[in-house]
């Protein structure tokens, strides 16, 4: 298949899917409207090391733990309900301001671990992430040649016969939201299967993982899994060169959910249980059925009462016009900017035009009920 054909098909397919059977992209629905799960913000000097040791996560409060009690059985109740006696799960999710990564700590105690086979027959932690919460289908079953209403939890739609199932795969499967089948644990194979066209997203430097466990296949015990992934607004099959990472920022809502796939018997032809965080089993292929997760600010114990911070943007290099943005933290009554050329400002977000080219040191002083703070940058402002 030619790549240009794939790109054109992607545009046609996206329009058809939104119009035919998905919620509008501008207003996606997320499950559990009364629940917003928090994502812990790690301080930049306390980023967890991916080594399978949970000590780095001791700072994360219990309020961030999502356990077995939050899971539901597969739709229809055909499979067993979550049972802490046979499998007890604790999941914590974190992020670091300035990095477009989601960190996970998965701790599970199970009476029988099934991971001896090389294929999908493996106890699995399956996660789906939609970094911009745009919703919509993320698997090729969204196309009419592969799709049935039952498979994706939607009503029937009028298909577009011009779109082949191959084009559907390359156009949507894992492109704007991603599905990871994470093997718990992985034995003699990749730590995860990235289900879809962009299989490269599970590899470093876009992801990393480490396990800690002391059991063999068929035995019970505790598994500790640490990993991080990079969510993408666009992750195409051609590789990372055209990919667009999801921009993570404080208080942003992302779509995220997971399932615990429990085989329980090496001779079983299919899984024994399938437990979901989302109430919709078909969240694996429909990002509109994910749960809402909020990227939280730093916990109070990691914040300074008063901290001066700022950024800048050169608006017009020819006029040497620079916009300064105050990003300070705390209760602030006053600002004083020293632009390094003899000029100053008491505005919170000033704009300044420099008369001459050069490199300038800029200093911001702030004051408030909790004292004073200063932040300077040496020669970040370089003008010609």
Overall tally of domains: 2
Low-confidence stretches: 1-27, 145-153
Subunit arrangement of the protein: single chain
Sum up the overall morphology in one term: elongated
What proportion of the residues is helical, as a percent range? under 10%
Distance between the termini: 48 Å
The ordered H/E elements are HEEEEEEHHEEEEEEEEEEEEEEEE
Write structural notes for this entry.
- It is built from three helices and 22 strands.
- With 384 residues, the protein is mainly β.
- The protein folds into two domains: 28-131 and 177-295, Immunoglobulin-like; 304-383, Immunoglobulin-like (Sandwich).
- The strands form four sheets. Strands 1, 2, 3, 4, 5, 6, 7, 8, 9, 10, 13, 14 and 15 form a 13-stranded mixed sheet that branches.
- It starts with a helix and ends with a strand.
Q: Layout of helices and strands, plus pairs?
A:
Elements: H1 3-20, E1 31-41, E2 66-67, E3 72-73, E4 87-95, E5 102-110, E6 124-130, H2 149-152, H3 165-172, E7 178-183, E8 192-194, E9 207-212, E10 221-229, E11 232-234, E12 244-245, E13 253-262, E14 273-276, E15 291-295, E16 310-316, E17 321-326, E18 334-338, E19 344-345, E20 351-353, E21 358-368, E22 371-383
Parallel strand pairs: 1-4, 1-15
Antiparallel strand pairs: 2-4, 3-14, 4-5, 5-10, 6-7, 6-13, 7-8, 9-10, 11-12, 13-14, 13-15, 16-17, 17-20, 18-19, 18-21, 21-22
Short descriptors:
single chain; mainly beta; Immunoglobulin-like; 13-stranded mixed β-sheet; 22 strands; elongated; disordered N terminus
């Amino acid at each position: 298949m030619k790549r240009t054909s794939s790109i054109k098909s992607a545009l046609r397919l996206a329009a058809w899917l939104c119009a035919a059977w998905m919620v509008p992209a501008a207003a996606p629905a997320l499950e559990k409207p009364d629940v917003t799960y928090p994502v812990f913000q790690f301080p930049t000097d306390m980023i967890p090391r991916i080594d399978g040791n949970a000590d780095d996560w001791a700072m994360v409060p219990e309020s961030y733990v999502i356990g077995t009690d939050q899971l539901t059985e597969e739709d229809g109740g055909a499979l067993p309900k979550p049972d802490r006696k046979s499998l007890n799960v604790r999941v914590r999710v974190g992020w670091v301001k300035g990095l477009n990564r989601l960190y996970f700590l998965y701790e599970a105690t199970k009476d029988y671990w099934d991971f001896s086979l090389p294929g999908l027959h493996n106890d699995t932690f399956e996660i789906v992430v939609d970094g911009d919460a745009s919703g919509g289908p993320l698997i090729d079953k969204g196309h009419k040649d592969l799709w049935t209403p039952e498979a994706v939890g939607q009503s029937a739609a009028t298909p577009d016969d011009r779109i082949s199932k191959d084009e559907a795969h390359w156009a949507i499967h894992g492109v704007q939201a991603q599905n990871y089948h994470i093997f718990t644990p992985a034995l003699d194979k990749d730590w995860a299967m990235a289900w879809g066209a962009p299989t490269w997203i599970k590899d470093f430097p876009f992801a990393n993982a480490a396990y800690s466990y002391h059991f063999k296949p068929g035995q019970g015990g505790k598994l500790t899994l640490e990993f991080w992934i990079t969510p993408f607004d666009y992750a195409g099959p051609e590789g990372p060169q055209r990919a667009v990472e999801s921009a993570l920022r404080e208080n942003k809502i992302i779509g995220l959910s997971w399932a615990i796939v429990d085989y329980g018997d090496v001779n079983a032809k299919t899984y024994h249980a399938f437990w979901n965080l989302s109430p919709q089993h078909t969240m694996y292929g429909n990002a509109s059925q994910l749960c809402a997760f909020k990227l939280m600010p730093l916990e109070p114990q990691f914040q300074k009462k008063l901290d001066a911070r700022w950024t800048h943007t050169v608006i017009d290099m020819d006029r040497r016009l620079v916009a300064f943005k105050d990003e300070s933290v705390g209760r602030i009554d006053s600002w004083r900017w020293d632009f390094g050329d003899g000029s100053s400002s008491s505005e919170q977000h000033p704009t300044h035009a420099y008369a001459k080219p050069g490199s300038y040191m800029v200093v911001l002083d702030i004051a408030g009920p909790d004292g004073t703070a200063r932040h300077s940058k040496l020669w970040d402002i370089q003008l010609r």
